[in-house]
Amino acid sequence: MKARINCCWPHAALSCLPPSPSIAHRMNSRMKHFPTTLALVLFCAGATVCAASESTAPRINAHRSGAGALGPDGWTDATSAQGNFSVRLPCLFNDFTFTPATGDVVKGDVVGCEAGGTRFGATRIHYRDAALADTYFNTLATAGALPGATIERAPHRGLTAITRRLNNRTQCALMRIVRAEQDNVILTVESTPAQCGSVMKMGPQFLDSFTLDAPGAREAKIASTLPECPVDAELGGAKAVDAFKALPNDVQERVDEDTCRPATVSLMILKHDGLCRIGNTPMSVASLMTLKDTGEPISMMFMAPYSEDTHAALQVSLDGRYAKQPASAYTHGMPARQEQTTVVAQPGGTLLILGKPSPITTGTRMSSVQQLAAGNAALVNRDINRCE
């Protein structure tokens, strides 16, 4: 029996995530709800797009919360972390990706915010194939998809699009649905009837601002401004520590592990738009493990939000820069939620292990590049509850 997707999405979607001590996961819990009820209605307009078991909820990967910088006009540029699109918004925005467990939708990339009771949202919905995107676009263009709304058919920057307006006793809304490659993009502005003037004034500016970006364009632009991640330092004592601490960051977290001997200290840092780059890939989270007594660096790790393209770019960069090693060069397994993809070695022998999230990973999914000497693998990967 078909049922709607668990509607913890998009309302308070991030409250569905389990707590985690890591910075990357705690970022999820700090994000506010994403307020786009109209997007949910339109997303579920097709008969099978929302098919799922009652207990199945989409996986949420939170990228940023309260992002952007308002200019003199009160608006900010908002670029989706993984959706390859940009809009302009009159408020600081949230940015996340949802992945349904079943159905015709592969994933959705979302940016949105709320300003004075008026909600703005842009959702790029990726389907299993272009035919499905056509089917759902045509469904959304019918009167039944949103009863009482007007329908205007006009291209958007050369792309097929429809614009709909709705004003009734409970809601005022303006929306545009754009056919984009194998996807549909749903742009919505909504508020109460009392604020309909605000919707109709700011709505067209928001809708008209939508642009598609070339794949990788955002990452390349960000990477061009970032320093190289200090993976070439080979964990060479103070040099590696100084290079790590010099990285720009928004958040720091220190974790002391005193239970086991030798005791270690881990420092984690995060910067939403990237703190350094490996090749042309911005890395947004990093950690450094040192011995507590001496400060000697033991391990360094850099992480980026996972996508197939991002992960492939990291592998090409590492395999092209260092000597590729057999899997046996690193006998210790990756953390439970990561799968080993490639192992390379620097000239001095320090290993770099590229990992990707395993299928069981929930919440934020990250690609990781871990740097350590093979002799320290047992220390880095020990269970701090059992000290082994």
What is this entry, summarized?
The protein is an alpha+beta fold and 388 residues long. It is built from 8 helices and 21 strands.
What is the N-to-C order of secondary-structure elements (H for helix, E for strand)? HHEEEEEEHEEEEHEHHEEEEEEHEEEEH
Q: How much of the residues is beta strand, in percent?
A: 35-45%
> Based on CA inertia axes, which overall geometry fits?
elongated
Main sheet? 8 strands, antiparallel
General description of the model:
The strands form four sheets. This protein has an eight-stranded antiparallel sheet. The protein has helices at residues 23-30, 37-43, 130-140, 196-208, 217-223, 238-245, 308-321, 377-380, and strands at 59-67, 76-79, 85-89, 93-99, 105-115, 118-127, 150-153, 161-167, 172-180, 183-191, 211-212, 251-257, 264-270, 276-278, 281-283, 285-291, 297-305, 323-325, 338-345, 351-357, 366-372. It has 388 residues and is an alpha+beta fold. It is elongated and about 70 Å long. Helix content is 19%, strand content 36%.
Topology:
Elements: H1 23-30, H2 37-43, E1 59-67, E2 76-79, E3 85-89, E4 93-99, E5 105-115, E6 118-127, H3 130-140, E7 150-153, E8 161-167, E9 172-180, E10 183-191, H4 196-208, E11 211-212, H5 217-223, H6 238-245, E12 251-257, E13 264-270, E14 276-278, E15 281-283, E16 285-291, E17 297-305, H7 308-321, E18 323-325, E19 338-345, E20 351-357, E21 366-372, H8 377-380
Antiparallel strand pairs: 1-4, 2-3, 3-11, 4-5, 5-6, 6-10, 7-8, 8-9, 9-10, 12-13, 13-16, 14-15, 16-17, 17-21, 18-19, 19-20, 20-21
Question: Main attributes?
Answer:
single chain; 388 residues; alpha+beta; eight-stranded antiparallel sheet; 21 strands; 19% helix; elongated; disordered N terminus
